Amino acid sequence: MNRSSKRTTATPLGKLGSGNVFADLGLPNPEEELLKAKLVSKIAEVIEKREITQV
Predict the structure, then answer these.
(1) CB distance 34 to 22 below 8 Å
(2) Radius of gyration of the chain (CA)
(3) Rounded to the nearest 5 degrees, what angle is found at the Cα of 44, between the Cα atoms of 33 and 55?
(4) What pLDDT shows up at residue 45?
(5) Which end of the chain is more exposed for a tag (fewer CB within 10 A), N or C?
(6) How many CB atoms lie within 10 A of CB 20?
(7) Residues 1-55 pLDDT 10s
(8) Which residue stretches of 1-55 are H helix?
(9) Which of 7, 9, 8, 26 is nearest to 17 (CA)?
(10) What pTM did the predictor assign?
């Protein structure tokens, strides 16, 4: 399969985001969504560091 056939519309380069991808996407409650994402990331980091498994 040709790689170019999978490409989507190009996004202009050079534009910096706000630091909150949820706000950049125009989603409702972007601050809350960013906070939840940071919390999940930190929990995952602790789980990995402590080598916690489901067992």
Answers:
(1) yes
(2) 17
(3) 130
(4) 97
(5) C
(6) 15
(7) 555 556 666 666 667 899 999 999 999 999 999 999 999 999 999 999 999 998 8
(8) 21-24, 30-49
(9) 26
(10) 0.64
The residues near 33 (Cβ < 8 Å, ≥ 6 apart) are 22, 27
Residue 52 and residue 25: Cα distance in Å, rounded?
34
- Residue labelled with tokens 């380069």: 13
Residue 50's alpha-carbon distances to 15, 39, 40, 43, in angstroms, are: 38, 17, 15, 11
Which amino acid is residue 39, in one-letter code?
L
Instruction: Report how far residue 7's alpha carbon sits from residue 25's, in angstroms, rounded to the nearest whole number.
Output: 20
